[in-house]
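2024-03-11 09:14:02 INFO worker-7 job=invfold-0412 stage=load source=structure_tokens
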């Protein structure tokens, strides 16, 4: 549910004088009138105090029928006409659940600056000011608003300041002011104090200003000077000021310099400076032309005007001169269809491309983003072509699956030799007779393969008890259980075969046997009882480093050790 409430009040302020001009420091008592008898009700009275020192704090009386009668013809009306008090009717929209500050729990002081001062008759604070251009943290801190101030009794606060926790009414609120004068980052708040000795300016933390009755988000005054922001300010909405239209003399306007309020009730402007011109644009508007010069460096637009040696509509600079942006030089021809930047006859694209694209030309000066079209290159790589391939440095990076390539081949010195070499590889692969089985367990390329009772491929070993010693081929790929697996089964082919340890090159030409380790071959026949002696073939590709040399596959049963 919203906490915003509308409040209509009569604000009464002691003038400090009697009707004849003599000083008056006594309170003025306003008696409520009965709306039926129009007589004073002595039990309902509101005192309007003179205040502490010479300050004159206002008193807000909620508008009711009785208050209206008093304002119209009773005490409020009489004392106002006699000059003892001033009165105005105020309409407020107040957020009762917001005590001010970013979180609505109160406003802290502006940090890292002198932010508290005890004057002769006031206590002054500096809080953050963000009135222009955004809504301020200090919104609602206006003249006449009750405020609860806490934090002075905390440790670390100078002893002379520890007595100032309490309830106050704001007597001044000045955007863009600090304790030492104008300060665009500050917002000066004053509350009245009894007359006393001033104290030094200090920087305090932990002080909190809480709007006791909630935050005013909008206010309209019948006589102007809303929130103490100027006699011609009749409206205040969300931190923005609305100056009143002066009688007979035209409207007034609030003027800010870099967010600092210069004057809230300006009625005329006088533009001064070489080259500055003001001319009517009709319909109540005036154009102000400021070509540059004067105090400070020119903008890029001003530089283009001043540097245009032709004086025409085209920008033309002297030879050797440049148009330079301090950071980025932005050329913006507009966002319409066909609006492009043209540089030296080349029309550049007016929209970005996609990742990986490049700028390409149509050979008629029109550039665009696209995918480059590669020129045909095969004819250039032939003998005596413009990009002939040097066979000595040709690198084939393909890693074969079905054989182990030689790491020290002789150089291929011609296209013909390369063709013959590749053809030889192709023919050698063609000699591998491959059969497809279902893997009865996970297999690795080079595993010696036997068949189980279901006819599925499993790793072979020399154990008689396992009945997996009869090798039918070598796994030609690595697969998981249940997958199809290619198995080299042709005698005389040279598949790669797995060994538990890399056999020495000196063993090339020796017989290879099935090992007791499932799937592996060994250059040594098993000697343990209960193993089968089964030759796989002849070792061919051993080098002492690889554990998967090629073997000339010629499987043959020899004997079983009992």
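2024-03-11 09:14:09 INFO worker-7 stage=emit residues=562
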């Amino acid at each position: 549910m919203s906490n915003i409430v509308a409040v209509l009040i009569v604000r009464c302020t002691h003038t400090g004088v009697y009707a004849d001009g003599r000083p008056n420091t006594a309170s003025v008592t306003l008696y409520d009138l009965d709306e039926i008898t129009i007589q004073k009700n002595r039990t309902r009275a509101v005192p309007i105090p003179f205040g502490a020192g010479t300050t004159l704090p206002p008193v807000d009386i909620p508008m009711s029928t009785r208050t209206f009668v008093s304002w119209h013809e009773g005490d409020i009306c009489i004392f106002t006409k006699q000059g003892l008090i001033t009165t105005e009717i105020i309409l407020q929209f107040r957020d009762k659940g917001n005590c001010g500050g970013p979180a609505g729990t109160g406003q802290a002081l502006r940090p890292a600056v002198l932010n508290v001062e005890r004057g002769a008759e006031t206590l002054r604070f500096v809080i953050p000011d963000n009135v222009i251009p955004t809504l301020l943290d200090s919104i609602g801190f206006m003249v006449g608003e009750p405020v609860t101030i806490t934090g002075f009794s905390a440790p670390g606060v100078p002893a002379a300041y520890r007595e100032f926790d309490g309830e106050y009414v704001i007597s001044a609120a000045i955007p863009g002011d600090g304790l030492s004068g104008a300060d665009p980052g500050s917002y000066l708040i004053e509350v009245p104090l009894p007359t006393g000795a001033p104290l030094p300016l200090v920087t305090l933390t932990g002080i909190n200003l809480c709007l006791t009755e909630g935050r005013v988000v909008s206010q309209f005054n019948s006589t102007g000077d809303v929130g103490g922001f100027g006699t011609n300010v009749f409206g205040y909405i969300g931190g923005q000021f609305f100056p009143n239209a002066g009688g007979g003399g035209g409207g007034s306007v609030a003027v800010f310099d870099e967010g600092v309020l210069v004057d809230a009730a300006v009625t005329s402007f006088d533009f001064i400076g070489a080259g500055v011109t003001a001319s009517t644009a009709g319909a109540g508007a005036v154009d102000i032309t400021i070509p540059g010069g004067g105090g400070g460096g020119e903008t890029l637009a001003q530089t283009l005007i001043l540097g245009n040696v032709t004086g025409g509509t085209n920008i033309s600079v002297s030879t050797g001169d440049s148009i330079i942006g301090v950071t980025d030089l932005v050329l913006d021809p507009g966002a319409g269809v066909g609006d492009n930047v043209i540089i030296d006859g080349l029309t550049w694209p007016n929209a970005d491309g996609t990742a990986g694209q490049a700028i390409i030309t149509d050979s008629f000066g029109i550039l665009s983003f696209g995918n480059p079209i590669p020129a045909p290159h095969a004819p250039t790589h032939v003998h005596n072509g413009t990009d002939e391939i040097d066979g000595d440095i040709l690198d084939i990076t393909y890693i074969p699956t079905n054989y182990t390539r030689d790491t020290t081949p002789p150089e291929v010195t011609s296209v013909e030799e390369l063709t013959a070499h590749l053809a030889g590889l192709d023919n050698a692969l063609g000699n591998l007779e491959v059969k497809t089985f279902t893997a009865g367990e996970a297999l690795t390329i080079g595993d010696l393969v036997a068949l189980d009772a279901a006819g599925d491929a499993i790793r072979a070993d020399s154990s008689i008890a396992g009945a997996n010693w009869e090798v039918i081929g070598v796994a030609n790929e690595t697969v998981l259980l249940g997958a199809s697996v290619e198995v080299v089964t042709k005698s005389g082919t040279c598949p790669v075969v797995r060994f538990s340890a890399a056999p020495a090159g000196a063993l090339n030409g020796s017989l290879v046997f099935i090992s007791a380790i499932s799937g592996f071959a060994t250059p040594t026949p098993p000697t343990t009882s209960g193993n089968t002696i089964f030759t796989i073939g002849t070792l061919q590709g051993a080098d002492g480093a690889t554990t998967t040399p090629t073997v000339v596959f010629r499987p043959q049963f020899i004997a079983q050790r009992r």
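2024-03-11 09:14:09 INFO worker-7 stage=report msg="Residues 338-373 form one domain."
2024-03-11 09:14:10 INFO worker-7 job finished
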